[in-house]
Amino acid sequence: xxxxxxxxxxxxxxxxxxxxxxxxxxxxxxxxxxxxxxxxxxxxxxxxxxxxxxxxxxxxxxxxxxxxxxxxxxxxxxxxxxxxxxxxxxxxxxxxxxxxxxxxxxxxxxxxxxxxxxxxxxxxxxxxxxxxxxxxxxxxxxxxxxxxxxxxxxxxxxxxxxxxxxxxxxxxxxxxxxxxxxxxxxxxxxxxxxxxxxxxxxxxxxxxxxxxxxxxxxxxxxxxxxxxxxxxxxxxxxxxxxxxxxxxxxxxxxxxxxxxxxxxxxxxxxxxxxxxxxxxxxxxxxxxxxxxxxxxxxxxxxxxxxxxxxxxxxxxxxxxxxxxxxxxxxxxxxxxxxxxxxxxxxxxxxxxxxxxxxxxxxxxxxxxxxxxxxxxxxxxxxxxxxxxxxxxxxxxxxxxxxxxxxxxxxxxxxxxxxxxxxxxxxxxxxxxxxxxxxxxxxxxxxxxxxxxxxxxxxxxxxxxxxxxxxxxxxxxxxxxxxxxxxxxxxxxxxxxxxxxxxxxxxxxxxxxxxxxxxxxxxxxxxxxxxxxxxxxxxxxxxxxxxxxxxxxxxxxxxxxxxx
Length: 563
Known about the structure:
Elements: H1 2-6, H2 22-35, H3 58-68, H4 71-115, H5 117-121, E1 123-124, E2 135-140, E3 145-147, H6 153-157, E4 159-160, H7 167-173, E5 178-180, E6 182-183, E7 191-202, E8 208-217, H8 219-254, H9 256-269, H10 285-340, H11 347-379, E9 386-389, H12 390-404, E10 410-414, E11 432-435, H13 437-454, E12 461-469, E13 477-485, H14 492-495, H15 519-529, E14 533-537, E15 544-551
Parallel strand pairs: 1-7, 10-12
Antiparallel strand pairs: 2-3, 2-8, 4-6, 5-7, 7-8, 9-11, 12-13, 13-15, 14-15
Helix pairs in contact: 4-8, 10-11, 11-15, 12-13, 13-15
C-alpha cells in the first residue's frame, strides 16, 4: 500500500504509477523463457555417443571429492551449515519483527499527531514553525502546498517526497500510513507519512478544507535495525563457531566406537579371530552394529575352527587309510616276491603263503568296503524307508554273537526294571522303526562284532531294547537298542573317541584281531543318517554299553515304555 502511494503522481493531482512500458513485457518473456525446456547440448566434434563432454563430469568429480572427505569433517560441516541456517533464519525473523514493531510505534506517533485536530485548526504560519521532529505539509484544494516544519529534522533526514494527491484520494486513503523517500538533507532517509482531510487556517485567511500530510523520519528505525543486525551478526558467528567446535568434539567422541571397530577389524584381518568389538549399549546404533559384528565373528571363528578340525580329521583319515591299506598290500607284495625268488620250495609253504595272501586281500577288501560305506554316508545318499522290527534284529545279532563264541552268555532283555531280583526285564514284543533294514542290521552286526573282538572269550553280553521318551516330550518317543558287555571296558578318554574313524582303544593296533577301527564310526554314521544318535556309558557292574537312539515309527504295536 505504501509503496503504491509513494509512486503515484500525475498532473491532475491523481497519483499514477511511473511509466515502465518495457519492464512487464521483459518479465513475462523471461518467465516464459524460464519455463521452456532446455535446448539439447550441441554435438561436439571428436566425441562418440555415450562420452562425457568436457565439464559434464563436474557433479561426478564433486561427488568423488566429497567421498574423500572424512566422515567427521562432513558431519561437522553439516552441523555448522544447519546452525548457520538456523541463525540466519532467526536473525532475519528477529530483524523483521523489531523493524515492524518500531514502524508500528512510528504509526502510533503519527496517529497521535494527526488526532490533534485542535492544533490543525489553529492558524498556521506560511513561514513555518520552530524545530520539530516531524514534517507537516498542507495542500489546499487549489493545489497550494505549505510546509510547516523544516528544521532540524528536515535538514538532517531530507524532505519527504509527498505524492500529489487530491482531497478525494486522501479521503480514500483513510488512516493507512505509507512510506516515501526523501530528497536533500545530510543523511536522507525514508519517511513514514499519514494524510488526513481537515479544515486549516493559514495566516489570517479563513479555514480552508485541505489535505494535511504529517511525516516522521524512519532514521531511528534504520539506526536500531543496523545496531540489531551487527549484534545478531556477531552473536550468530559466535554461535556457529562455538557450535562447530562443540560438534567436532562430540562427533570425535561419538565416532570413537567406530575407530575401535576399525582397530578390531584390522586385527582380525591380520589373523586374530579372537578379537571382539567392545560392548556398547544395544539401544544405540554402534552397540547394535558391534553386537552384530561380534555374532558374525563368533560364527566365522567357529566356522574356521570346524574347517580346521575337518581338515585335520581328513588328513588323519587319509593318513590312517593309507597306512591301513599299505599293510595288506605290503604283505601280498612280500609273499609274491618270495614266490618269485623261489623261496617257497615246498607245497606246504606255497599253500600257507597263498592263505596269508588271501587273508590280506580279504582284510583289504573289508577296509575298502568300510571306506566306501562311510563315503556313501558322508554324501548323504537317500536310504530306503521301510518298517523294521529291531527286536527281531536283536535276536539275530545275539545268535550271531553266540555263533562267534559259544562260550558266551548272550541275552535279549528289556531296558525296564526287572520283574523280580536277579531276573532281567523282558524285551518288548516288537520295536518298529522306519529305516533301511540292511543298514540297521549292519549297526547291530558291528556292535556285537565289537564285543566279540574286544572282550575275552566267555564274557557275557546283552542286547537291551525299549522305548524312551526324549527331551521333546511324550510326543517324541525314541526306540533304544543297547549292546553291553561285562568286559574290561574303556577309560573315559577312550570312550569320547571310540566313534572316531580308525581309532583303536588298543594301543598295540593289532590288525589281525583289532579290526580296522571303522566299525563304530560306521555305526555313528548310519544312525545319524536315520535321524538318531549313539552314545557310550559304563554299566554299574563294569564293561561298556553302546546305546543307539532311533526315532520310533509313527505307529507301534506292543512297544513298551522304559523308565
